[in-house]
User: Fold Multiple sugar transport system ATP-binding protein from Niveibacterium umoris.
Amino acid sequence: MGALSIRNVRKAFNQTEVLKGIDIEIAKGEFLILVGPSGCGKSTLLNLIAGLDNITSGDILIDDRVVNHLSPKDRDIAMVFQSYALYPNMTVRQNIAFGLEMRKIPPAERQASVDRVAQILQIGHLLDRRPSQLSGGQRQRVAMGRAIARNPALFLFDEPLSNLDAKLRVEMRTEIKMLHHRLGTTIVYVTHDQVEAMTLGDKIAVMNAGSVQQFGTPHQLYDDPANLFVAGFMGSPS
Ligand code: ADP
Ligand code: MG
Assistant:
């Protein structure tokens, strides 16, 4: 049994099926990549895991608990999107602490949590600034800080680096990798970038047109692609 189990998950919008029976299973602490071309259903699947939309059929389990009918706040997850969605009139400190305040965490504990996150992400010097006074990379770091502060069982990332320039994207990729090593949290990370998938993933699900074409380690996908789509998409030699 894993930290995340996706069992024969289907999703239709009106009559159109956009997820056609997805099966994925990962263990606690694993970094799962959902990769595939635009429109293949990555965000739809992530939103179902987050509870932002209703499943048509199938089951999603987080830490062996069926969560199909739980609201997002009861799922022990934190989500980071490509747009940072920071509160513009709050400081960085307030942005990070806000979710904890909502969950009625006492002030001293909130403070400790903000300090821990600031140290991990090296944003201690930014705590009293507002989002408008930050660079794109710093904003994304704060958005991650807000997610980390909640100490969730599962992190969900939807193309978090796609708004950043190429150089910063490489930097942040390294940072996310270090963060995963350090925190050991289970991560589901959506991208359409093959390099990001290969460098970050413990396991990769290559998706196309609402189906998983292959699920495996980066090595398995590269050395032994299941079909031409995977070979072409991952850039393997065959
Ligand atoms: P990806 O994230 O891989 O680019 P999405 O999951 O956003 O793809 O979309 C998958 C398919 O589902 C697309 O064809 C998209 O148009 C469709 N879709 C996504 N959300 C909705 C919605 N709320 N209503 C109708 N169709 C949707
Ligand atoms: Mg998407």
